[in-house]
Design a protein that fits this description.
Elements lengths: L2 H5 L2 H25 L27 H6 L18 E8 L3 E6 L2 E7 L4 E7 L7 E9 L5 E7 L4 E6 L1 E10 L4 E12 L2 E9 L1
Antiparallel strand pairs: 1-10, 2-3, 3-4, 4-7, 5-6, 5-8, 8-9, 9-10
Length: 199
């Protein structure tokens, strides 16, 4: 036993030990309450100090989560053609012609000496039962309104160096409806048509 402890009475020794315990526990509590972001030094918290799989996107700044997104991927393959739809991609030399069958009738495609020429031939049991309405363009991209009510076999003709049409087709006799999109362009002596009918 040291001289100091021999010199102290039991009561004094008890009070000294108690004071030491109180002082150390209070200091720990103070540290737990008072240490915050202001007391942390820059770069004090490193990856090694963070428990794995504890950081969530909600803990990150919005700019950080936006930077984690990748770029837009490549376009996926075209989906399957719907039932009853018809599409075509046809090229002809000057003087050539061909016929494309669509659910409501026929498309006659011509390549004349200086123009593309598309004729839409309608099949309808009702002489006034067919309606074709929408927009079309001739030699430019400016849309023009088109509304045709025709008897069976009456064509819709659009001659030009460049034509396109986007039409809603309906047949009163059968209740059949659909969309016809067609574009024809002449380049040199070659005419090309791309089109689709969507029921």
């Amino acid at each position: 036993m040291s001289r100091l402890t021999r010199a102290m009475s039991p009561a004094a020794l008890f009070i000294a030990v108690l004071a030491l315990i109180v002082a150390t526990s209070a200091g720990s509590a103070y540290a737990a309450v008072k240490i915050g972001t202001k007391q942390l030094k820059s770069n004090a918290v490193t990856s090694a100090k963070i428990k794995d799989k504890t950081i969530r996107t909600g803990d990150l700044a919005r700019s950080t989560t936006r930077s984690l997104r990748g770029g837009t991927g490549p376009q996926g393959p075209a989906g399957p053609r719907g039932p009853g739809s018809t599409s075509f991609d046809t090229s002809l030399e000057a003087g050539g012609q061909t016929t494309v069958r669509v659910p409501f009738g026929k498309l006659y495609l011509y390549c004349s000496a200086s123009q593309v020429f598309t004729q839409v031939d309608i099949d309808s049991a009702d002489p006034n039962g067919l309606m074709a309405a929408g927009t079309y363009g001739i030699n430019d991209d400016a849309p023009r309104s088109l509304s045709v009510t025709g008897a069976a076999g009456v064509p819709i003709s659009l001659p030009a160096a460049k034509i396109w049409a986007d039409l809603q087709i309906s047949d009163r006799a059968t209740g059949r409806t659909g969309t016809l999109r067609v574009q024809g362009v002449r380049t040199g002596s070659t005419c090309r048509w791309i089109g689709q009918y969507i029921p």
